[in-house]
Amino acid sequence: MVRRFFRASLMLLLMCWGVLQPGTAPAAPPLEVSAVRLGLHEDKTRFVMEMSAAPAYDIFLLADPYRIVIDLPQVNWNAGEGTAERKGVIENYRWGLFKKDTSRVVLDVAGPVKILQAVTLPPASGKPWRFFIDIQKTDEAAFRAALAEHRQNQEPEQVALVAPPPTEARKYTIVVDAGHGGIDPGAIGKSGVYEKKITLAVSRKIRDLLKKNPKYTVLMTRDDDIFLSLRERVAVGRHAGADLFVSIHADSISRPDFRGAAVYTLSENASDDEAAELAKEENKSDLIAGVDLSAQDDTVQGILIDLAQRETKNFSVKFAEMLTPEIARSGMKVRGRSHRFAGFRVLKAPDVPSVLVELGYLSNREDERILKSGAGQQNLAEAIAAAVDKYFETVDP
Ligand SMILES: [Zn+2]
Q1: How far is ligand 1, taken at its centre, from the CA of residue 279, in Å?
Q2: Which residues in 193-333 belong to E strands, given as ranges?
Q3: Of 86, 134, 137, 353, which shows the fewest CB atoms inside 10 Å?
Q4: What is the pTM of this model?
Q5: Domains of the chain by start residue, with CATH
Q6: Each residue of 49-94: pLDDT tens digit?
């Protein structure tokens, strides 16, 4: 149904615009979203974007939790931050870069919904281009049917891979994974800083330090403000045949007095409630960004930690144990039980030793100050690079 609207609005666009001829498309200026409005009508909720031009778009539904996803070409967003703005069936919305050339808007909706129409209107009475969708409550069966219809039309998800350079003898490949990114900001600090920015800044510093050592091939899962699903992150490590995967985070917690770094490895049974809660939060990344988990096969999602993984796990634990004292030396406080474990999806490569580092808590003012400062970031990066050196000196994976 949505595809039909797409065609309909494209026709409208062709009629109104009259310049979209094949082969003559000039380099268009970037699309801009200048305003967003939610409108409550008698029997429907309207989500409106004011835009600088008519967008190409793809709309689909997601379940568990209920969401509507609108994919657009890359847009400049000048409509302010998406904040919790409950209206009608829309509980919240957010936007961000989903992948190169694709911006994404995700609407959290209160229950099963259907999209009545998606419309693009040309500029009129002082208003710029407007794109809107009308949403209405529906029943679970109708929602699931629309979901299934969209999925049938989908190509299987392609995992973008970073090709590893040819490996020489005694070279180790390390993947540095900057947590969150793009549409998924991660935790938000006391001062408003986004976790995704901190993780990228520290990850780049780690890469730059490790790259000085010719023994290492260093890859990053992302080197930009872009979203990657947890599965894609795991895939980068696996396809590179990585010897070590380090995922960088800096989360927040409801207790502002809590501070300090901690290192996590994978386990189906969490070491404590706090670790379990943290893994739950981190695993939400895909939900926040509107990744359709149900369409993925379960090779990564459902991997059981069996005997084959035990060796990998042992290496992960060894690295985690080397990392903690290095972080303590960097000046960052280290949590009491500094090595913990839980079911982090990003650590689920069965054949790549993987750890997740929480550099500190953005919910704590002192930690946040360190994490935001260039010197603090550099100290943490040096600590992690030093631990990598120690690990490969003593362990031969
Ligand atoms: Zn995180």
Answers
A1: 9
A2: 216-220, 244-249, 261-266
A3: 86
A4: 0.72
A5: 2-152 (2.60.40.3500), 172-394 (3.40.630.40)
A6: 999 998 888 898 898 889 999 999 999 888 876 555 678 899 888 8
